Amino acid sequence: xxxxxxxxxxxxxxxxxxxxxxxxxxxxxxxxxxxxxxxxxxxxxxxxxxxxxxxxxxxxxxxxxxxxxxxxxxxxxxxxxxxxxxxxxxxxxxxxxxxxxxxxxxxxxxxxxxxxxxxxxxxxxxxxxxxxxxxxxxxxxxxxxxxxxxxxxxxxxxxxxxxxxxxxxxxxxxxxxxxxxxxxxxxxxxxxxxxxxxxxxxxxxxxxxxxxxxxxxxxxxxxxxxxxxxxxxxxxxxxxxxxxxxxxxxxxxxxxxxxxxxxxxxxxxxxxxxx
Length: 275
Prior knowledge:
Elements: E1 6-10, H1 18-31, E2 34-41, H2 47-61, E3 67-72, H3 75-85, E4 90-93, H4 106-114, E5 118-121, E6 132-135, H5 140-155, E7 159-166, H6 183-187, H7 192-206, E8 210-217, H8 220-230, E9 235-239, H9 250-262, E10 266-270
Parallel strand pairs: 1-2, 1-4, 2-3, 4-5, 6-7, 6-9, 7-8, 9-10
Antiparallel strand pairs: 5-10
Helix pairs in contact: 8-9
């Protein structure tokens, strides 16, 4: 019998955010993952404290099949140790109350940027529908991000924006002389970028998702943040390169950390297949 796919939901010491936990429940149910509620206790703390934290969190989450897991130690090290011990598809961070104007905690930023597992960092979660911005770099690693984003859109509001930012016209855009022209004119060309965007639009149409294509030119980080803020997107989805190639790839190696620190939106960093 195939083992059910897990999601590690990290619960800290700070008061839980109801909206963040409700958004977490929606995401976990959408992907049909087995929720594992995790808390790292400080050395010497009573285990009853962890039990109370996880129980109170699940009173909001309302998972009937949740597994509770508490360990004593440094949170970063214990989370990394658990991810080595068992396979997880997703790690959820940012379930505690935090001033929306503040950047994510150093721990959250470290984990989001360094783990080999897909990470959802929650910030300012929506009450109801979720406006999703999927960033595609046009390479293989983007395919997983597209699948994650489209699946979530299919189960929520059936609308999504697909964004590609052209920072400079490299060789893959041969034949695309005017990258600043209208999207309709770009899509009329037969180059790898347009083939990729058309394939994404077709995939969205097949599952009934209304996908808006958006093409921008400029600094990748700035344009992603600008698009997320102008359209008031709730979730930014980024595809990450394989861990061993992280310093060679631009999308997460340079863009991801700065997007996390600069945007006030939730961010999903995809590092593998959804299933």
